[in-house]
Structures are given as structure tokens and as C-alpha cells.
């Protein structure tokens, strides 16, 4: 064990417990450290940005806050990853989590197995939102201007014989999608694959959970999507906290 590191960590923990700051003498007393040692460690931690000093009081610095923020993001991501893995195993299908952020479709996490692999991203998901269920589900949650802006940047293009043919046809389809209904596509993005996506709108973030199956198992698609939707409802609170991972 490296004693100086242990003492520095003890100081950080003690400072963190004082929302309104604490002076060096109080920190020395509460940590059981000698006052000269406390001063030396405090100066070092301030220099490195882990603490800041204001009017004789010590507070957590930007470096410590960045660590805290990173830890929170990792915890939120872990919540999503664990949920996807659980649903993947329960349904026997790959499960996807995606969001629409800053004008782009982002697939944040995919959970699959060698027995039930995810659909291969052979064409960039961001540019082909018109063709896959994830993209259609996210676009259906946007307002009209944002939706048209996306299609101006990524116009419809045929990927398979089943892909929607033009922007107008896609917009009409999106307008017919009922709120909170699963969005399905059959071999529009990739031949041999069918997909379903469930809208997940939390605050101002458009998000979705999705599944895919081989085309010969298309009869399983909607029942599995409904089951996933029910499972999502049970974890909505946790997902709401994790949506911005």
C-alpha cells in the first residue's frame, strides 16, 4: 500500500462530505492526519485540480468532478447493458438501443450472441434510417421540420427490393405510425432479416429499443416486440435515468 495515496484519498472523501467547504485544520482533525501532512497534501491536490481553495476553505475541484461524472456515465451505461443482456436471453433475440442525438441516429448498444447474431451493419445506420426499424422509429418521434431536415441530409435510397422508394412515401408512412406502437420492417435494410423497434421517448430525447430476427422467423417478430415492450415498462424508471449515457 502507498500511504500517501491512501491519505490523499481520505482527504478527498472528507472534502466531498462538506458541501460548503472545510478549512485545513478541520480536515486534519477529521482525517486524523498531522496538520503539516494535511497542508502538503492539500497543496498537491489543489495544484492537480482535484481540490480548489476559496477563502481558506477547500472544495472538490474540476478534476474530481470529472471523475464523478465519468463514474456516473459508466453506471448509467451499465444499467442499459445489463437490461439488454437480460432481454436478449429472455427473448432469444438480439436487442439494440439507439437514440437520435444532435441530428444523428446513434446505435448506443447491441446485445447479441453467436447463436442469435445482430444484423450486420453493411450500410451506415446513420445514413439509412429510412430503411431499418430503428431509424423509422426514431424519425417517427421527431417533429416535421427535424424529420425533413434529416431526410435532406440523408435522402431515401433503395437498399433492397423492399426498401421504401422515396422521401414522400417514407414521410407518409411515418405519419401513419401510431404512438407507442412497435415499428416493423421486413428485409428493407438487409435481405433475410426482419426488425421491430419500440419507441422510448423520455423528456426531449427520442430513443428506441429494437430486436431483429431471421426472415424465416418473421411470425415471432411482433410477439417478441410486445414482450420486450412489457419488460421495458417494468424498468422505465431506471431507463429514464440512463437514457443520456
Please summarize what this structure is.
This protein is of the alpha+beta class and about 240 residues long. It is built from nine helices and seven strands.
Mean pLDDT across all amino acids: 88
Quick one: overall form?
elongated
Q: Summarize the amount of helix as a percent range.
A: 40-55%
**Gap from first CA to last CA:** 34 Å
Instruction: List the total number of helices.
Output: 9
Strand tally, please? Answer: 7
List low-confidence stretches: none
Secondary structure class reads alpha+beta
The side-by-side strand order for the widest beta sheet comes to: 4-3-7-6-5
Biggest sheet architecture: 5 strands, antiparallel
The percentage of residues in β strands lies in 15-25%
What would you report as the Rg, rounded to the nearest angstrom?
25 Å
Domain IclR-ED: 63-245
Transmembrane segments: 189-213
Keywords: DNA-binding, Membrane, Transcription, Transcription regulation, Transmembrane, Transmembrane helix
Domain HTH iclR-type: 2-62
